[in-house]
C-alpha cells in the first residue's frame, strides 16, 4: 500500500509538469502570432507610405511588397530600430526603358512607434541598396534597329544585327562597353563591330563604324526611389543588372 501512495504524488507532479509545458508552448505560440500580426500591420503601413512617395516623384510601379525582417518584431518596435526592411517594386516604368523588378534592401531603419501607427514622421534607413534588371528586349526596342538582338556573352553586352552595306546583306556582331554615365544613365558604347564578308574597302568600314555609333547611346533609367544612386551596371544572361545605393535615407520620403 505504501508503494501505491508514493506513486500517486509522482504522477500528479508529472501531470502538472506536462500542463506547464503545454501552457508555455501555447503562450509562446500566441506571442509568435501576435508578433507576426504586428509585423504585417507595419508592413502594410510602410507600403502605403512608399506608394505615396513614389506617386509624388512621378514614378510608376505596381504596389510595393514590404517585408520587415528580424525577430521578434515587437522588441524592434519598442526600440524604434528595425534590423532590415525589404521592399520589392515591380513594373517600374521609365520614359525609355522599364525595370520589371527593383529589389530594395534597407538596413538599420529608425522609426518610432507613433510613426508606424500614425504614418506621420520619418522612417529613416542607415543604408539602402537596390538591384534591378533592364531587359535586353527593352534595350533593343530603344535602339530601334530592325532585327537587332542583344544578350550577354562572356560578361559583356553582345549584339547581333542584319545590315545592308554597299548592297550586301551582312550580319554584324560585336560587344559593347557598358558604364555608368552622368545622371545615373547607362552608357552603351559599341566600338568594335565586325561583319563576315564585309567588302575590303574603306567606305564599308566607315559605314559599319557609323552603325556602331548609331547604337551607342546613354540609356535613361526610370527614376529610382529612395535617393538611390547607380554605382554599377553588369551584363547578365537575364539583362543589364543595375546596382544602386544610398545612405541615411527617409524611405517614406523618397523624393
Describe the structure.
It is elongated, with a radius of gyration of 29 Å. A hairpin with a 5-residue loop joins β7 and β8. The N and C termini lie far apart (83 Å). The chain has helices spanning 2-56, 73-79, 113-118, 136-143, 202-214; strands at 65-69, 81-93, 98-110, 124-134, 149-153, 156-165, 168-180, 186-190, 194-195, 218-219, 229-236, 239-250. Helix content is 35%, strand content 39%. It is an alpha+beta fold and 255 residues long. The strands form two sheets. Strands 1-2-3-4-12-11 form a six-stranded antiparallel β-sheet. Strands 5, 6, 7, 8, 9 and 10 form a six-stranded antiparallel β-sheet that branches. The longest helix has 55 residues, at 2-56. The protein is built from five helices and twelve strands.
Briefly summarize what is shown:
About 5% of the residues have low confidence.
Tally of DSSP helical segments = 5
> Which quaternary structure do these chains form?
single chain
Strand order of the largest sheet: 1-2-3-4-12-11
Helix-strand topology string: HEHEEHEHEEEEEHEEE
Helix content: 25-40%
The backbone outline, from C-alpha atoms, is elongated
Task: Describe the main β-sheet briefly.
Answer: 6 strands, antiparallel
Task: Identify low-pLDDT runs.
Answer: 18-25, 27-31
Q: How many strand segments? A: 12
